[in-house]
Amino acid sequence: MLMKYYSINQLVLFRHFGDYGYITDNRNFGYTLLGENFTLGDEIISEEGADIVSCLKKTPLSIDEIMDKVVEIFEPEAGLRSSVIEFLELLCSKGFILSGESAEDCINSGAVVRNGSQRFTEDDSSTIDTQEFLSKYYGERPFPASIHVEIASECNERCVHCYIPHEFKQDLMDENLFNLLLRQAIELNLLHITISGGEPMLHPRFIDFLKKCRKADMSVNILSNLTLLNDEMIEEMKLNPLLSVQTSIYSMQENIHDGITHQKGSLNKTIASVIKLIENHVPVQISCPLLKNNVNSYQKVKEWATEQNISVGIDYSIIAQYNHNKNNINCRLSTEDLKNFISEQFSSDSTFRDEIVKEITERRKKTGDDYICSVCNSSICIGPNGNVFPCVGWSSKILGNIKSHSLQDIWLNSEAVKQLRAIRFKDFVNCRNCSSKDFCTICMVRNSNESSSGDQFELNQYFCNMAKIKKEIYNGC
Q1: Interacting residues of 220 by C-beta distance below 8 A, sequence separation 6+
Q2: Fewer CB within 10 A of the end CB, N or C, for the chain?
Q3: pLDDT digits (tens, 9 = 90+) for 260-285
C-alpha cells in the first residue's frame, strides 16, 4: 500500500482556538491579479478536527508521521488512523489540505488547487468578510483578526499629503520590541499583520522581521514606496505565499509624482520595483491618492496598472495630520474637482459604480446599534515605540503600550479601548436624520485629526459635502 502525504495548503491560514479550529483563505488580506477568481472560503472545524490539523505542517508529512503526533493527543484505538485519513481527505476535497502519494506530489497538488480557480465551500460563508464570519462564533466579544505595525516612522520621502508630521519621522522599532509584539500576536491567534512606516524598508532588520512573520505563519501586507527594494528583500517575500505589497504611484509623469514625494527619481524607482515584484510573482497593488497636484494625470496610472494586470485604488479621502495640523490637506481636491471626479468615474468605471452601489446597500442595512468601523473591533495599530492606537493615522489616541501591558490585556481590558468599542452609529446625533447618510462613511480618525480638540464626534464638513455629491450623482443616473 502506497504511503500518503498531507500538508496544509500554503495559501490558507489555520488557527486553533481551543474548542474549535478556523481555516481560511487569504482573500481578505492579500492582493490578487485583476480578474483572478480563486476562493477557498472559510471553515470552522471541531476541537478534535483542530487537534488533527495542528499535527500537520505546510511542508508534506507522511501519514505515519502525522499519526505519531495524533496518538500523543488521542488515545490509540481501533479505527483512529482511518478516521484521521477520512477527515483529512474531506479537507482535501475543499482545498484546505493537500495530498499526494509522495511529498513532491503533495506539493504539486497545490498548483492544481490554485489553477482550478473554483470555490470549494458549499455555503455563503466563502463570500463574506473573515471578520463577519468569525463574529458568528465569537458573538459579542470582538476578535482582532489583524494588526497594523509601523516599524519605522522614518521615511525617505516627504509626501505633501502625509498624515504623519514630518518632524516626527525619526523612529525605528527596536528588534526586541518587534519580537515581543510578534509573540503577543501569536498568543492572540492573529491572522494578519500589516507592516508599514514611514518607510519600513529603511529598517535595518526589515528582512528579519518578514522572516519571523513567515515562520509565525502570518498573512503579511507591506506598505512601502518601494524605492529601497532590493533582491534580498524580494527573495524573502517570495517565500511567503501569504505576503503582498501595496505602493503609491501618483502620476506617470516624473515631475508630478516626484513633486508630491519631494524625492527626485522616486517614480522610476517605484515603477521598476513594481515590475520586479510582478516578475517574481509577489502580489502587488497600487494606491493612487488623488490630490490637486495629480487630478489631471491619475488616469494614466490606472491604465498602466491595468496593463500590468494589477489593481489600483484611487483614494480621495485625504486626512489631516495626527497632531491636528491641517497644512497637508491644502492639497485636497476642491469641491468642483471632487464632483467632476466622482461623476466621471461613476459614468465610465463600472467597478467604481458597483462599489458605490455596494456601499449604499450595506449602509442601508446598518442600524443605530451597529459599530462604526473596525476600530478596536477587528484591528488595532502599534507604533515604533510600542504605543497602541486605534487606527492608521490616529497615533495621537494612545490606548496603551505593549512594553507595559500585553496586546491581549490592552485589547480586552483597556478603558480607552472599551470606550471606543462602545461607540455606535446612533452616537453621531447630527447624522441620524441626515438625508445623505446612506452615501457617507463616518470616520472617527478623520474627525479627530481635523478637530483642534481631537474630538472624534466633530463632523467634518468636507466629507459631508462628499456624501452630498455622491447622492446627487447617484440619484441623477
Answers
A1: 192, 193, 194, 195, 210, 213, 214, 240, 242, 243, 244
A2: N
A3: 999 999 999 999 999 999 999 999 99
Tell me if the bond preceding 139 is cis, omega within 30° of 0: no
Is the pLDDT confidence value at 468 over 90? Answer: yes
pLDDT value of position 7:
96
Average pLDDT of the chain? 90
Residue type, 271: I
Instruction: Please give the Cα distance from 448 to 385 (Å, whole number).
Output: 22
Contacts 24+ apart (CB under 8 A), 452-457: 452/324, 454/324, 454/396, 454/397, 456/423, 457/427, 457/428
pLDDT at 365: 87
Distance CA 212, CA 151 (A): 14
Whole-number pLDDT of residue 166: 81
Residue 119 has pLDDT above 70, yes or no: no
pLDDT digit string, tens, across residues 358-392: 888 888 888 899 888 888 888 899 999 999 999 99
Lowest mean pLDDT among 202-206, 306-310, 460-464: 460-464
Q: CA distances (Å), 311 to each of 256, 303, 342, 417, 468, in order?
A: 21, 10, 19, 34, 28
Give the span between the Cα atoms of 125 and 280, in whole angstroms.
32
Whether 6 contacts 99, CB under 8 Å:
yes
Q: Please tell me the distance from the alpha carbon of residue 158 to that of residue 135, in angstroms, as a whole number.
A: 40
Grid cell listed for 180: 515581543
pLDDT for 139 equals: 60
Helices 335-348 and 461-476 cross at an angle (nearest 10°) of: 40
Scored b (16 or more CB within 10 A) or e, 406-445 reads bbeebbeebebbeebbebebeebeebeeeebbbbbebbbb
Q: How many alpha carbons lie under 13 Å from residue 437 in its C-beta half-sphere?
A: 17
- 120 — pLDDT class (breaks 50, 70, 90): very low
Confirm if 3 and 62 have CB atoms less than 8 A apart. Answer: yes
Q: Mark 35-59 as b/e (b = at least 16 C-beta within 10 Å).
A: eeebbbbbbbbeeebbbbbbbbebe
C-alpha cell of residue 4: 500518503
The answer to whether 345 touches 416, Cβ cutoff 8 Å, is no
Cell 501569504 sits at which residue?
242
What is the spatial distance between Cα 462 and Cα 331, in angstroms, rounded to a whole number?
13
- Whether the pLDDT of residue 290 is over 60: the answer is yes
Contact 319, 359 (CB under 8 A): no
Q: Could you tell me if 145 and 45 are in contact, meaning their C-beta atoms sit under 8 angstroms apart?
A: no
Tell whether pTM > 0.90. yes
Contact 447, 460 (CB under 8 A): yes
Residue 244 pairs in a beta bridge with: 221
